[in-house]
Amino acid sequence: MKEKMALRDFDEWIEDNGMESLETMAEFLKVQQQGAIELTRLILEHCNEDKKTKAYVFKVYGEALKCVASELSKDF
């Protein structure tokens, strides 16, 4: 399991990698949040009424994140 980065370690990471890396991380988070919004919209528009639950939305979102992570890991 990955450990969370301590704040001082994060400062060192920024110094080592520069602001461009931080901007890339921010852009990734923006894309991730937009994906969550779009996925929620699709679920609300296309799912049967009985499946429109909070648990179902988060289950589908989790599966989508796993898919994205899998695709990203292929690039690295």
Walk me through the structure.
- This protein is an all-alpha fold and 76 residues long.
- It has a domain at 48-76.
- The chain contains 2 helices and no strands.
- It has helices spanning 7-46, 54-75.
- Helix 1 crosses helix 2 (54-75).
Q: Name the overall outline.
A: elongated
Structural class assignment: mainly alpha
Got a strand count? 0
Roughly what is the average pLDDT, rounded to an integer? Answer: 76
Main sheet: strands, sense, barrel: none
Order of helices and strands: HH
Spans of at least 5 consecutive residues with low confidence: none
Number of continuous helical runs: 2
Helix content, binned percent: over 70%
What is the beta-strand fraction? Answer: under 5%
Head-to-tail CA distance between termini: 19 Å
C-alpha Rg (nearest Å): 17 Å
Write the layout of secondary structure elements.
Layout: H1 7-46, H2 54-75
Helix pairs in contact: 1-2
